[in-house]
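[09:14] KT: can someone run the structure on this one? pasting the chain below
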Amino acid sequence: MTTDVAREAAYRYSYMRDAGHLDFIHKARKCEDFFAGVQWDNTDLVKLRSQRRPALTINKIMNTISNVAGEQLFNRSMVSYRPAKDGAEETADALTKVFMQISQNNRLPWIRSNMFLDGIITSRGFYDVRLDFDDSMRGEVKICALPPNSVLLDPDAADYDGKDWLDVTVSRWLPLDMIEMLYGKKVRLELQGVPDDYSPYDCIDSGDWITDRFANNTPYDQLKTQSYYPADEAGNKFRRVRVLDRQYKELSVLEYFVDTKTGDMREIPTTWEREQTAEFLRQNDNLGTIKRKGYKIGWSVTAGNIVLHDKTSPYEHFTVVPFFPHFRRGRTIGIVENLIGPQELLNKARSQELHVLNTTANSGWIVEQGNMKNMDDEDLRDQGSETGFVAVVERKDGLEKITPNQIPTGIDRIGYKAEEDIKNISGVSDYQTGFAREDVAAKAVQFNQARGTTNLAPVLDNLNRTDTLLAERVLSIVQRFYSEPRLINITGTGLGAQDEQVVVNQITPEGTILNDLTLGEYSVNVTSEPERDNYEDSQFDQAVRLKTEVGIDIPDSVIIETSKLRNKQEILATMNGNKTDEQIKFEEELDRRNSVADLLLKEAQAKDKDADANLKSIRAGKESIEAQQAAIENKSDVSPEVMLEMKLKAYEIAVQAAEDRRTETLKHVQKMKEIKLSAATKALPSPNEGAKKDAA
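[09:31] RB: done, structure tokens below
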């Protein structure tokens, strides 16, 4: 049985290797070399050196990739969870803080940067997320970045997130000490007597290079033939063994919890005993169980013909989380591979340009035989191009310098075109690298920088997709294995930040569970936020500009709070006059009351203006009627006189009403002024009173 498991793992590895992984290794190695500046073929270098021709390396790829990586560094991901079905808002917040603690423990931002760099250089980057028991017997989530060359994907799959992958294999070279620690001394003794090149299933091949270590790029099958240790015991101590870590899907009958109200299903953990499942059903009346066919994850670890591990995986998913900068139906594309051609053209153009200049300085001589007095032909060839060269000749016309060939027109343009091709293909322009022309307006520079990030939008979108997959895998592990009460410690980052503690799965005196992470469904929300240093700088700059340029009255304490001053807390305390917390709160309340009083006063004054304008309008109407009445008194027509008399009485009533409203408005304004004066002049409690109150 164990032989069948090892044979299946080895045959599957061979198929993955030959169906595309070996091609990926060669492409990845070439991309890594070009990023590192190893951009000339050894055969070409030997030939150029034999012809005394230069081979320059103008590495534009490293600068380009560094700018792309900078976009990721300045926009970190922020993961949060939101309640979905049967999820609680408080539990979602607790899950978010649990992820923050996992991120801090694993130093996820740095791991993310390494994984992103793997992806944009080789076209593939990988996380590995699983439960680890090194620091806690309860287990904690561990996240690491896997070397892309060691991860073999299902050649027949074509999806990004791995849901349709049938298997994934990670090839590792482990020392015997580590194998003994993980799988026991018995396994070590078995492997200790097996030769390095022993593999009944053709597992050992030169395609698996040690490329992601401090060693050189020599294939392992060549390194292992050399003896570096004097004794066999020492060799066994440092010797490494090829281990195939394979996770695969196998069809099986699975048992699920079913919500009889909503129909939602969740797989019963394979680690649960029957009594634990029955107890869970008793606590949840609306749940039942059902059996149906589905995939479960198998996990085998083999070394040659020896099986180190073969059990069902405790996880609902593969532990490998992929990142592909550009993904097109199973084909992964990075950034470096499309820059190799322009980079080679740039190196060759610059080298050829230098070669032409060198030949111009030493084009050669035509000399009549026997004309040289102080040197022979060999000395003339070696010293003829040196500064201060002196030739003693029999006749002057017997020594002539050969006219060199002119530099071909446009050879310098080839190098310029190659540099422009690198910028256009990568999408990293001079505006992104900070080398834009100085005569360009600042707004134009900002606009072009903003537009430049559009070229990287697909890459950053796939990175966001990977972050979402990682957060989902972490959520699955946490809900499955973080079932006991835990105290989550979150360390505050930044100057003056406070640490935080969160208790999860805690049983209350009422018998309920506080922040039960095992129940409910939650969705993942991944957003990008600027790097903390850049974010704080932008906050400070905006606060200063709003105060100095826009004229908004921002308190000085806010500007100091957003600054990066080392002792800003002491400065704030000095500005507050070393006041107690009670005094500071009282002043804040006083400022709030002043703001409210100012608002009410402004509203009252606005009403006063409206009432005054209304009164003036009514009085003007009354005066017009009185003038018309005086003119009509000289006439004999009675009917208009009576009509005007009625209008006059109506205006008199309106005037009286307006005057009454104006009087009430003035009283209201006076009252608001008294309130504002009282709030502004109210005395603060003295420090002695505060001390007496604290003592009491």
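[09:33] KT: thanks! The chain has five domains: 1-36+172-317, 61-165+319-338+425-527, 339-424, 533-575, 581-695.
[09:34] RB: yep, looked fine to me
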